[in-house]
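[step 3/7] fold_predict: job queued, chain A
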Amino acid sequence: MNSKERNILLLLEYDGTEYFGWQVQVQRPTVQQVLQDTLKEILNEEVKIVGAGRTDSGVHAKGQVCNFKTASDIPVEALKKALNSLLPKDIFIKEVKECPPDFHARYSAKSKLYEYRILNSKERNVFLRRYVWHIPYQLNLREMGRCLSILKGRHDFSSFRSSGSSQKNPIRNMLRSELIPSSNDMICMLFEADGFLRHMVRNIVGTVVDVGRGRLTYEDFLDIFHSRDRKKAGIKAPPQGLYLIEVRY
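[step 4/7] structure written:
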């Protein structure tokens, strides 16, 4: 890095509904592209942003982290103010700070925490449709929790990796995997790991919900997990219930 360059970290949240995910795509709105365009307007230079989590289309973030290099000497508080005045209302910068030259939002991360939200009620809520998976059927939360508990530890998660995944190594260390019943018919599942395979959380959730509905048993889930065969697992849960909560360094 040039001695005059600074390495800037952004902590942000966004509603992913209107975006085709985090990563830049040709002629499609993405969070990364909007940030880069806005930074160019403020700094008068092209910047390349690196994100900690490459969230999919429709997935939200409460604690996404990204960083970029710049030659600008703009104070961090002034940059935060400028970004929040220019960015769309569905993206908000929570913190801006200067970080060490070797900091990398993705590769420096020790773990990422995701949350998946389900509204388990007979009636749907039109105001939550962009932010939860509505399931009108009764779910067996005890059996769902049992399934999630066996995922903790270092395992091969091939059964929950979508085709087209670029990661060659399917081994991940799951630090946290649990179900938390909440109020107002809301169910939350928390997943923390040192890394995630493509669609891994959504594929796990879809399969665990099949157990909750009685389509699969706990023993079926065990067999699927150990089979390392994605075709045996359940559906991929829809994106709107998924949130990147925190990146830990």
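[step 5/7] annotate
Helices lie at 31-43, 76-86, 141-149, 200-213, 218-227.
The domain at 111-248 is CATH 3.30.70.660 (Alpha-Beta Plaits).
exit 0
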